[in-house]
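hey m, so remember when u said the tokens were messed up on ur end? i reran from scratch. heres the input so u can diff it against urs
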Amino acid sequence: MPQSAFIMYEEEYREITAILEKLLREANAKCVYLVDKDGQLIAASGETKDIDSTSLASLTAGNIAATGGLAKLIGEKEFSILFHEGERDNIHISVVGQRVILVVIFDKRSSIGLVRLRVKKACEDLNKSIQKLLGKMEAGAEKETILQEITDDDIERLFQ
């Protein structure tokens, strides 16, 4: 079943950004991104100016989708954590709540062990914020349904 796009509310955006900034500091990372599974950037923190965040978001979502295909081939539901090691920088990718993707880019100032430890806590906090956001989106959709039931004739009768 396809998932609907996020409607970001200010309170949850601030919560999510604060979680990313805390993770950035505690993991000693270069930058942190939160992306939805459709490849849309939700939030970012850190040294992001030299990175094309649109491309990073879409390629990360594609990476998760491709890896999901590999997982199914061997009988797994999905691989929730991916790690790519480079000469200078490393990327740690985590699926959060089967809904969003957390991307942490770090270098030699940090370690994979520290990043994994800090990501675990951040994922718990992000999942709570995402669930809260989804609840608000659902409540907003119900309000829209009620408003859609009101016709122009109803409004005319109201003002007569």
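this time it looks ok to me. Residues 69 and 78 are 8 Å apart (CA to CA). if urs says something different then somethings off w ur setup not the seq
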